[in-house]
Structure formats: C-alpha cells, structure tokens
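### Sample
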Amino acid sequence: MFDLRRADLHLHTSCSDGRLAPGLLVQKARGAGLFALAITDHDTIEGIALAEQAARRWGMEIVPGVELSATVEGDEVHLLGYFFDPVHPALHAALAAYRQARLERLQMMLDRLRAEGVRLTPEQVVAAAGDGVPGRPHVARALVAAGYAANYTEAFQRYLLPNAPGYVPKPAWEAAEAIAVLHEAGGIAVLAHPGERLRDRVFRQLLEAGIDGIEVIHPMHGPHLVQHYRQVARDFGLLETGGSDYHGHRPEDDALLGTYSIPYPRLLELRRCAAQR
C-alpha cells in the first residue's frame, strides 16, 4: 500500500521572517493536506516547541529544523538543518552567539536610520520580533507601527533594501562551521534553494565540509532545475529534500503549501541518515 502522506521541509514563522505564528502555520498546513512539517526559521529554533504543541492537536509531525545563513569564500549560502537535538549545548551556544551578532547589527541599522530622522528603539524592534532573532523584517514591522511607512513592502523599499539608508549586511557563519555544529547536534545539513547560480567551487567546498543533502523541490526551481539537482544528488550521493519556503506575506503564498512538498517516505530516509550520526 502506498504512503500518500506529504511533508513540507521549509517553512518560516513569525519567530523569524514569516507572518504566521507557529500554531497558526501548523493549522494552515493541515488544511493544505500536509502531514509533516519542518519549521526552518532563520537562525532560531524558538518556533519548534510552539509548532509541536499545535501539531499534537492535529495528529501531525514536526521535524526540528532551522535555516542558517552562511558563507563560502564570501558567497552567501543558506543551510537547512534537520533532526538535530534542539537542546544540544553546542547548537544553543552557536545560536546565542549569532543572536548577539544580530543584535549588534540591529543597533547599526537603527543608528543609520536615526541619521535619516527615523527614531526607533531596540525595544520596539525586539517587541516586533517576539521570540525570534531581530532582523530586517522586524525593523520593517516597527517602522510601520511607528508610522514611518504605510506597509511592510514600503518599509523595505524606503529603508531596508541594499543601498537604502538603513541597510546593514547580515552576519553569517562559515558554512563549514555551521555544518559541523549541525552534525555535532545530531542533525543533517542540506543546501537550501541552490537555484541557477550555484558556483562549482562553492559546491565542492560544501561537499568537503560534509553537506548531507540538497533542496531539490523549491518554488524557485522549475522542472529543468528539479531534474538537474535530482541528478546532482544522485551523482554525489546526497539526500533530496524539498519544501515551499513559505513566509505568508503575499496572498499567493498560500498556494505554495502542499504544492512544494516531498513524499513522507523520503522524510523517513532523512531521519535514518540523522540516526546514523
């Protein structure tokens, strides 16, 4: 008998730059016919426990996940971590250090905005972030709440995009370090949404660092790229993952849920790989 259950392994909540709180996202995903979810907020795991509480009510499964910003020789990459121990000391220490770097970046952003006559306090942004790591999305929400922009999109365009007055580059880990931390915490590391511009030298270094998989199914990947990265995964013995990269800020985002997903048996393969660490 075929297992028809589906899993979405790339979702964001209000703990990072998503719109919905973890519980509401779980409920919406259930309505889209999904059985298993990975909450992969940017550089924070605070949403996992909240999602698990909601999932128990609906008989769904939550995979511990995170999306880490990293670099390879100056090129930015995003790494998805799965099946790690959420209370592992090394992971918590690394995320705490990253959170501190993000707070320092936040102060730099606020200083630049103040020079333009925009007066926000760190407390206003932290309040917008809730349990998440403060970043540009939360500054945007604070700008709207304070009346400096009419909406989220305007806040980004006027103040937070590259070359705008409040932009400060995001701190990032070295990819090899991020992969090592995920492995130490018992997890697996997957290259997120490689798209059309994955440089060969970057990919080679990720392989040397022990990357376990590659995100094949993603809204940025049309049929040609899906086939390409499926073959890459086979050629290099990598796990295949996929998900919607749902954020929920646009009405059309809802159509992503259930559309960009993987068969549940493939999730079981990821779990077996993590259990062998």
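The mean pLDDT is 94. This sample (PHP domain-containing protein) is used throughout the tutorial notebook.
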